[in-house]
Design a protein that fits this description.
The structure holds two protein chains of two kinds.
Chain A lengths: L11 H30 L2 H30 L6 H6 L6 H4 L2 H4 L1 H22 L4 H18 L3 E3 L2 E3 L7 H4 L7 H6 L4 H4 L14 H15 L1 H13 L6 H29 L10 H26 L3 H23 L17 H19 L3 H24 L5 H31 L11 H23 L1 H8 L8 H22 L9 H26 L4 H23 L9 H21 L2 E2 L31 E4 L4 E3 L2 E10 L7 E11 L5 E7 L2 E5 L3 E5 L1 E4 L3 E10 L9 E8 L4 E3 L6 E9 L7 E10 L2 E5 L2 E5 L4 E5 L1 E3 L4 E9 L11 E8 L6 E10 L2 H29 L1
Antiparallel strand pairs in A: 1-2, 3-23, 4-23, 5-6, 6-7, 7-8, 7-9, 9-10, 11-12, 12-23, 13-22, 14-15, 15-16, 16-17, 16-18, 18-19, 20-21, 21-22
Helix pairs in contact in A: 1-2, 1-7, 2-6, 2-7, 6-7, 6-11, 7-12, 11-13, 12-13, 12-15, 12-16, 13-14, 13-25, 14-15, 14-19, 15-16, 15-18, 16-18, 19-21, 21-23, 22-23, 23-24, 24-25
Chain B lengths: L2 H23 L3 E2 L1 H10 L5 E7 L6 E2 L8 E7 L4 E6 L12 E9 L2 E10 L14
The chains are: A alpha+beta, B alpha+beta.
Chain lengths: ~900, ~130
């Protein structure tokens, strides 16, 4: 076959990018090895070489980033990544979002943060530098292989962002157009990309993913410190830095998660900020466990207890980060999520990645270098033989092999866990007397246990697709209500413990004083709860209990600060963060329990008596979410306490915009009939040719509630019937004429010449009436003087179902003065189509507490981090 | 017995309870006939059916008649067809979906869906088609 020489390609950026990917992989591996040797020998020389490689690796990551951005920026569509995720129309500030639409880009983002972390730790880890950096560089190695893009037939190592379009989508070169002009010229056809998913073209989507990934990335630091502690045999010194980074992780990951929720609330139309989707759970799971781990570290730091639990939780948190990556990137979730996932065929590599880090945990937990070496050699041998077996196994026994692999994997995983727990327990066991019942450490420990329970519930439900795959089952994924039921109950003990935490002392608390304080805060909280509920009106016992506990949590943490003014504010970060969390939970409760769908209706087509969830006939007829109303243009409708009018629609900015904004006017009158409040919301609908209707909500924010609206359908989406009943009439301006059916009366209002810029021709203004409706139509008659041709442009009114076209103009002869100009007008009719929108409006009360609570929580967490850093500095000084 | 032993026992017990209730509470993906059969025994319980849109039959949605009424026909993975009613506006990506997950229950002659998840081979999410050279 003849080699095709493709025209217009620029291959050097791809080669350069690829070179840096390879360099990053090699530098990370080599650096990891050098640091590993340095950790074992204590050699300064090896350590400084490790540093050099860290710099090279970090530079490579930056270079990959720059090259990929350059490819997207310069619209080099010969590269698959640019073709698939960007387009010529994409504004520069959204180009960065292309990085997280594709998997390769998000691995790159993760590597970027790891590189930043590496550069910070290089300077701050001091005595732990070698083992900590060895772990970070191992992660960088593993991540670099994810974008390496080497295909070993049976096992694909990574997927490169620098792949060429013609390699990745060879099928596209076979399209008929290219058969004519030659495949070599394919770039002339592929001169624009697919574009970025419109949902990602939102400013929140520019900052949410980097924040989330930074939170994800920081989870490795406490893990690395724990490994370093085990490796160097240091009992306690690793705790403080691990705690600082653990708190950073909790703060940043928490912010990232809520930002995602805020984005969903502001720009998605599911009507809420949290849906228990596997993608959301994937980021929540490590957060819950890192929160538990950070508390365990605080106990270890203050009392020396629970060193074992601290290590275990930190390790499992990092495994969870990897597990979450596996869940969201392997395509295993399939039907479980509203998100679509691309399976790049990397699931095996992702699993290997996960198991690799579990092995590191196990080996680090082993005592003595001899045992470590033997165990690692054994594990590596096992993995190698498995890969060899996978390559050798014939296709027909693939199924059996997979089964064996799954079970070996499970046995291997359990065995590794037993080894890890056994040795870790032996090495961290400290003989101490029992905790007192009224000690802060005991109750904080219990709090962590309850956080782990929350996690267990989330992970077991989210992992159902994995369970299905492993055991060939067919269990459906539970809905949001399932999670809510459990988490509502599990959150209660957590809130209770958070309320009393500050009032307990380490080691022992005076029972009398404690009980007195407890009673006092509970009384105040009860009063506040009752006062608040006068406005909320929550009656159900479980929600009331939740409200009381959350209020108590805020009140108790607030009162502690008031009662103990001598403590420096900076050291009260934990209390502030906890109070913020309490506010957030109050907001979550009230905005979901008291949420009102304003457009709910009982009217509609009924086929059979509808049954509610208890199997009884649903009298109100709203069990099946009849949540939408139709609003005809300029016809006010009553929606809750608001009079709502759909006024008009406008096109989005930009010539080619396919966005439509529907302006909906809300008005509330008081008893005297005076307007009390009014505002206009403009929900957006984009009829995307490739994705269907994309609705973006519009929300009016009040302090105590939000009114949230989005458009689910509009008259423009209806299929239009063709015009019929054509008739031609000769008329002159001012004369009245009718359509074929006689239902529409028309008159030519005025005749105007086209503006010079529009060419030569005439525009008519026709006034048309059908019953009470009137419309103006502007048909145009273009005259092409050069070719002596006419080009009429019809005018259409959907509301009247009318089309008008000028087919000819009869100009009076010069010898007949007084004769008028006559127009030959063709009209057609169809069923009148009213302009309307189908809209859903929801009232979210007190949702601002969710955002306010988050902000307070972040401030508290930042204060805690800063305070711990100051402590660390003092210790080192 | 140390206090934290009690905590661990609590953890284990609650953990087991969570997992048991999880797997006791969930349903499997079913076919339309299964959903029919089970609707009688479990009134008010929702099931998941993985199916495709029957493109030979009409999708009916007339917002002016009822903005919350959509009717269409679906074929489950075993090839059983059934009428589906959904009291929401028409999901716009439905016609191009290659797979639909319906959540709901059988009601007389039709399947009353409470939730529809359409899986689209949309251009933004399409899986790379790799061709061997």
């Amino acid at each position: 076959m003849k080699e095709i020489i493709f025209q217009g390609e620029q291959l050097w950026p791809g080669n350069l990018g690829h070179f840096f990917v390879v360099l990053s992989t090699v530098a990370a591996m080599a650096g990891c090895w050098l640091y590993y040797r340095a950790a074992n020998t204590g050699s300064d020389n090896l350590r400084s070489w490790g540093r050099r490689l860290t710099y090279i690796q970090a530079f490579s990551v930056l270079a990959i980033f720059v090259v990929l951005f350059g490819i997207i920026f310069m619209h080099r569509y010969e590269y698959y990544y640019a073709w698939r995720h960007s387009s010529n129309e994409l504004p520069v500030y959204y180009m960065i979002s292309c990085f997280w639409e594709g998997q390769e880009g998000s691995f790159l983002l993760w590597m970027f943060w790891n590189a930043v972390l590496g550069l910070i730790l290089l300077r701050t880890a001091k005595a732990f530098e070698a083992p900590v950096m060895a772990v970070i560089l191992f992660a960088q190695f593993a991540l670099s292989t994810m974008i390496l893009g080497v295909d070993l037939e049976i096992f694909k190592v990574g997927s490169s962002p620098f792949n060429l379009l013609r390699d990745e989508r060879a099928d596209l070169l076979n399209i008929p157009v290219l058969a004519q002009m030659g495949q070599a010229n394919y770039l002339k056809i592929f001169n624009n990309g697919n574009g970025l998913n419109p949902l990602l073209q939102n400013y929140w989507m520019v900052i949410h993913p980097p924040t989330l990934f930074f939170g994800f990335a920081t989870a490795i630091v406490p893990f690395a410190y724990s490994i370093a502690g085990l490796w160097t045999g240091s009992d306690r010194k690793w705790i403080q830095p691990a705690l600082i980074w653990g708190l950073i992780c909790v703060g940043v990951l928490g912010t990232g998660i809520i930002m995602g929720g805020f984005w969903a609330y502001e720009s998605l139309s599911f009507g809420g900020y949290w849906a228990w989707d596997p993608v959301e759970n994937a980021s929540l799971m490590p957060w819950l466990l890192m929160a538990a781990a950070a508390h365990m570290l605080v106990i270890s730091k203050s009392t020396g207890r629970h060193l074992f639990a601290s290590h275990v939780l930190i390790h499992i948190t990092f495994w969870l980060v990897l597990y979450a990556t596996f869940l969201t990137r392997s395509g295993i979730l399939g039907n479980a999520s509203v998100h679509s996932f691309t399976d790049l065929g990397l699931s095996k590599q992702l699993l290997l990645f996960l198991f690799g880090f579990i092995l590191i945990s196990v080996v680090a937990a082993l005592p003595g270098s001899g045992l470590r070496k033997k165990t690692s050699a054994g594990f590596l041998l096992l993995i190698a033989s498995f890969i060899a077996a996978a390559l050798l196994v014939p296709a027909k026994s693939q199924g059996t092999f997979n089964n064996i692999a799954i079970w070996t994997g499970i046995v291997f995983f359990l065995g590794a866990l037993v080894l890890f727990f056994y040795y870790l327990y032996r090495r961290t066991k400290i003989e101490m007397e029992d905790e007192k019942w009224l000690s802060r450490e005991l109750w904080m420990f219990l709090g962590s246990i309850f956080l782990i329970l929350c996690l267990l519930q989330v992970i077991s439900a989210t992992s159902i697709p994995v369970f299905n795959k492993l055991f060939g089952r067919n269990i459906a994924v539970p809905d949001a209500g399932f999670y809510n039921r459990f988490q509502l109950i599990l959150a209660m003990p957590v809130m209770f413990l958070m309320a009393l935490g500050q009032w307990l002392r380490y080691r022992e608390t005076d029972a009398k004083i404690f009980l007195r304080d407890l009673l006092m805060t509970a009384t105040v909280a009860a009063v506040v709860t009752v006062l608040c509920d006068l406005s909320f009106g929550i009656l159900e016992i479980k929600y009331l209990l939740f409200l009381f506990l959350a209020t108590w949590l805020v009140v108790a943490n607030g009162m502690y600060l008031l009662r103990n003014r001598q403590i420096p504010l900076l050291s009260y970060g934990a209390g502030i963060a906890h109070a913020g969390f309490g506010l957030l939970l109050i907001g979550v409760l009230v905005s979901s329990v008291n949420q009102k769908i304003l457009t709910s209706t009982s009217k509609g087509i009924e086929i059979a008596p509808e049954l509610d969830t208890k199997g009884k006939v649903d009298e109100k007829g709203v069990a099946f979410n009849r949540e939408n109303r139709i609003l005809y243009q300029n016809k006010p409708a009553q929606v809750g306490e608001w009079t709502v009018t759909y006024r008009n629609a406008t096109k989005g900015l930009g010539r080619d915009s396919i966005d439509k904004y529907f302006h909906v006017y809300f008005e509330k009158k008081n008893a005297a009939g005076r307007i009390q409040d009014s505002f206009t919301l403009s929900p957006k609908a984009q009829n995307n040719p490739k994705m269907g209707l994309i609705a973006e909500p519009s929300t009016r924010h009040f302090i105590s509630r939000d009114i949230f609206t989005h458009v689910n359908f509009e008259s423009g989406l209806e299929k239009t019937e063709p015009f019929s009943g054509y008739t031609e009439t000769v008329v002159s301006p001012g004369e009245t004429f009718l359509t074929a059916s006689g239902k529409i009366k028309m008159r030519i209002d005025s005749v105007a010449r086209l503006a010079p810029a529009e060419g030569t021709g005439i525009r008519l203004r026709i006034r048309a009436e059908r019953l009470e409706d009137t419309a103006l139509l502007y048909p145009v008659f273009n005259i092409d003087l050069e070719n002596n041709k006419f080009e009429p442009v019809p005018a259409i009114s959907n509301e009247l179902g009318l089309m008008a076209l000028i087919t000819n103009i009869e100009v009076p002869k010069p010898d007949a003065p007084g004769e008028k100009v006559h127009f030959l007008i063709r009209t057609g009719e169809r069923t009148p189509q009213k302009s309307y929108i189908v809209i859903k409006a929801i009232e979210f009360p007190w949702i601002n507490l969710v955002w306010a609570g988050t902000i307070i929580m972040v401030i508290g967490a930042s204060m805690a981090v800063y305070n711990r850093i100051l402590q660390q500095r003092k210790l080192q000084a | 017995m140390k206090p934290w032993h009690i905590a661990l026992i609590l953890l284990a017990a609650a953990g087991v309870a969570t997992v048991v209730s999880l797997y006791g509470n969930t349903t499997s993906y079913v076919s339309f006939p299964d959903a029919d059969a089970m609707a009688k025994e479990n009134p008010g319980k929702d099931f998941h059916v993985v199916c495709t849109l029957d493109k030979n039959k009409p999708v009916e949605y007339n917002a002016q008649k009822d903005p919350n009424h959509l009717e269409f026909y679906a074929i489950d993975s075993l090839g059983n067809g059934k009428k589906v009613v959904y009291n929401q506006p028409k999901p716009q990506d439905m016609e191009r979906s290659e797979k639909i997950v319906l959540v709901g229950h059988s009601q007389g002659t039709y399947f009353q869906a409470t939730q529809i998840i359409s899986k689209c081979p949309s251009k933004y999410e399409d899986a790379p088609v790799k061709q061997k050279p």
